[in-house]
């Protein structure tokens, strides 16, 4: 290791330790131990350009161990990504560009929001899938316009989390050779040595998944780290996993190799001792020698030159293949929302009862030609979720150009991989499973919402209508769970028009994930349904008089039930309005005038009908209203019997309205 390389590695350590100490909060152990890995990768093996952090063919780097965020911030500062020394000094402070864990879209150069351990591993697999797919679609002989690697760095905690195993199992099956995992192995977790809970042979586990496995004995040996990275790149058949043995808190005599280095500032005295131990030229906080900045600036020039070469290649490609250039632009542009809104073929439907899961399948196959960047799949449930795109091919080791993804029974990792597909750029992914198993996906849906990714979740078998499979498969609280998640549009359509509206919302969304909650059972097409569903709530069947006696509010399969109840009440002289509420989130975004038109404040007799928990309906029915909802779990029986058993009949809804009016 040259003197300047040593100093540049130590600059990462010193900046990280100083920032954490100033904040009096943070995790110094990972940055100190993994600094040589990050420096060697970013300096000599990773294709990136600080002057254009969104360059399409850059290599991706994800810090899966997001608690070690100062490692990434130090790199972004030193390599010239626009993160200033003042930004570094504001680590973990309100409004700063250096929050406690890396946040995508907030700090330039951060490729993914990480923090929940293992999540970054699954998102990296998704990014590698995206690279493989786009390369298959766009590359031509002598024109590898999509040709980059995905690097992900994580530690023992990431390897313990089950999401990593789910994702790596699929990565090995798919032979994603552009995926390189850097395992910061220091045998320390928060509670002490990893032997208390984690003794497996990780290398053999990764071999079993189908990875090339490599090992570096000394985490400070830049030459050995570099050699392993190049060996990983040379394997074009398998993803690669590099175990690099490090010492947590390296350089701090009192903390090195100890669990106490993980999640607490080192302390002023220990930082001074660390700087002296490392031979750092000053004990002044945040001091970095000019020659270090100069060296990092020289390193950054390689990235700019790499992009210049790619730009020249792409210009030639565009001239030779103008049709592919047009396709590239389509993949990397937003969907034309107005054109889709006015597309009569997209909105057309057969006037017969159909399950909304079937209608969703029809929409997917209409969209596959209208939205060429649409890709997706299911957690081994495509025949049930109706997520398969006809004649679009299966994404596999032998055909990365296929648009149908087979995620296997891996809902949690599927959510993470879907995030990675979206983060990569150029694709609009969807993922499907039974609605009850959105529980398994929730952490990754939350991250998608936090990152403002327009991912789509096709969640079928949405209620006790599942029937004979029983309460383990009948979602009750899941609607409330997803509705409680900020920045998620939960859309439960009642018929074909509303299902089309849900998909329109999904593919035109720019910053919000969409959860499409769909039935197994057939539903009638509603005479009053319309594109007004895009407002989240609207009048689907109005009262005869200007001020209705009562309002029934429902979503999904219960809207037709509400209409039946309205007709029944009309025969008794009770004049009722029915409001379809496919998406509370969209309704809340409407102005007060519209909301008052749909739900006038002077009509306090309101009943909400939904075959799920009543949680969340209170704000619409108020203290004077009532709900026809589930008060417990379901049961195993034919769906028709269950709806009657739990009170989802027109007669019970009508009686509930009358009781409210009394």
TrEMBL record:
Q: Could you say which residues are annotated as the site Important for catalytic activity?
A: 27, 262
Instruction: Please give the cofactor(s) recorded in the UniProt entry for this protein.
Output: thiamine diphosphate; Mg(2+); Ca(2+); Mn(2+)
Q: What are its GO biological-process terms?
A: pentose-phosphate shunt
Matching Pfam families: Transket_pyr, Transketolase_C_1, Transketolase_N
Q: How is the cofactor bound?
A: Binds 1 thiamine pyrophosphate per subunit. During the reaction, the substrate forms a covalent intermediate with the cofactor.
Family assignment from sequence similarity: Belongs to the transketolase family.
Q: How does it assemble?
A: Homodimer.
Q: Which protein, by its recorded name, is this?
A: Transketolase
State the organism of origin.
Answer: Megasphaera stantonii
Query: Which gene name belongs to this protein?
Result: tkt
